[in-house]
Amino acid sequence: MTEVITLVTPLDIDAFADGQLAEDRQCAVRRRLGKDGGAHAYVEEATQLNADLKALKFRLYQDPELSKALNALKRRQQAA
Amino acid sequence: MQTQTQISTAELNDCLPALHRFALQLTRNQDRACDLVQDSVERALRKAHLFDGANLRSWLFTICRRVFLNQIRSEKTRGITVEMDDAPQSRLASAQTQEQVMHYNDVVEAFERLPLNDKVILSLVVIEGMKYEEAAAVLDVPVGTVRSRLSRARSRLMTMVEGENSESEGTQLAAVV
To answer: Which of B118, B126, B152, B164 is the best substitution to test chain A (most A C-beta atoms within 10 A)?
Structure first.
């Protein structure tokens, strides 16, 4: 039997932390995390950071430059 | 993932006994010290590209201290597991710990130092919860570009939160504003 090896890139690991992977890719990344402690630690760190950013949304959006940029993008999205 | 390009295994092995003693001083527990050394070395190998080649032992100690502080923060956040029936009522409502407040402040300060384009991509995907495809449409760039920019922005933020690098380099995101 030929063993199918799925290539997992660092960007896949980021996408896994963001919950943006399809099921089959998620499985491939989980297998990788089981073997690669560094990747596992990165996912933990990224997941924690994501949670921190969500929790801090109100404070982060007080940045006028960021608010302006996001509003401009929203307007552009609505106009499209 | 990064590989250990600038750290020799022999040099690393030489530092391990001292690192273990240092971890033992911090944790005052043999098992936790071993775990801490393991986590510290793992992080050092992952961040090997940041090592300036000057003093490996000192760099490892710094990482060890940071990992230990992160663990304390994490434990404070998670708390000790107890049965709900056994928990004192006053403990069921949790206030933010001082460590958590400090950690949040670190994250906010690091985020503020990011280039605008990094802030935007993190806001759209992480905070607003957009799919990569949606963010790509909003920014008018390919999905692959969103993924790579997000990864770079996240790595930069992680590094800045860890205090390893306060210098930031902006990505060029022409689609913003």
So the answer is: B126
Partner-chain contact B120 A66, CB within 8 Å: yes
Chain B residues near residue A77 by CB distance under 8 angstroms: 137-138
Are B126 and A54 a contacting pair at CB < 8 A?
Answer: yes
Decide if A55 and B104 are in contact by the 8 Å CB cutoff: yes
pLDDT at residue B65 is higher than 90: no
Answer yes or no: is pLDDT of B2 > 70.
no
Q: Are B23 and B37 in contact (CB under 8 A)?
A: yes
Judging contacts by C-beta atoms under 8 Å, the chain A residues touching residue B37 are none
Yes or no: say if A53 and B126 are a contact pair by the CB < 8 Å rule: yes
Q: How far is B94 from B97, CA to CA, in rounded Å? A: 8
ipTM reported for the complex, 2 dp: 0.90
* CA–CA distance, A10 with B51 (Å, rounded to integer): 20
d(CA B16, CA B23): 10
Q: Which long-range contacts (CB under 8 A, 24 or more apart) does B18-26 make?
A: B18/B57, B19/B57, B19/B60, B19/B61, B19/B64, B22/B61, B22/B64, B23/B64, B23/B68, B26/B64, B26/B65, B26/B68
- Angstrom distance (rounded) from CA A10 to CA A42: 10
Nearest to A72 among B150, B154, B177 (CB): B177
